[in-house]
Amino acid sequence: MKKSLFLLIVFCLAGTLLTVRAVHADWANRFVVNEGKSYLISDKRVDAEQVDSMIGQVTKYSDEEGTYSGNFSNYYPKGTKYYSIKGVNISEAIAVNPGNGTFIRADYSGEYAGGASLDWSLLWSAAGLLLLAILTFIVVKNRN
User: Fold this and answer.
1) pTM of this prediction?
2) 106: burial class by Cβ within 10 Å (0-12, 13-18, 19+)?
3) What is the Rg, in whole angstroms, of the alpha carbon atoms belonging to the chain?
4) How far apart are CA 63 and CA 74, in angstroms?
5) 124 pLDDT above the threshold of 90
6) 44 phi and psi angles, rounded to 5 deg
7) Is 51 exposed, middle or buried (0-12, 13-18, 19+ CB in 10 A)?
8) Average pLDDT of the segment spanning 76-99
9) Of all helices (H) and strands (E), which one includes residue 130?
10) Contact, 124 vs 108, CB < 8 A?
11) Which of 1, 85, 107, 137 is the most buried (most CB within 10 A)?
């Protein structure tokens, strides 16, 4: 009886943890963050002649909704470069180079409030694994 209850708990926890990590939220907008400033990706192209100097690059990519630190994007992969646009203040827009020889305009949308909050899915996964380890220890100890 104890063994079947234990196995049921193990399978329930494992299934829950796997399900929690597999769920991906969908942000309402595609964006990049550079130096704490958030920019919405537009459909407008920027001519290569208008592109000025590189000002940063994506250091963290995720399609899971949350808050992240650094130069983050929910659309472009790590390493995607950001550039200033000639005659345009970076508090208005920047150019993003997806790596295919084109530049896409990203319009400033405000300060990004990321980096300080907890990743709750990771916290719950860790708590579940800890509970699983404790239950395993208890069952093994009671057998001996």
Assistant:
1) 0.62
2) buried
3) 22
4) 5
5) no
6) -85, 135
7) middle
8) 96
9) helix 120-143
10) no
11) 85
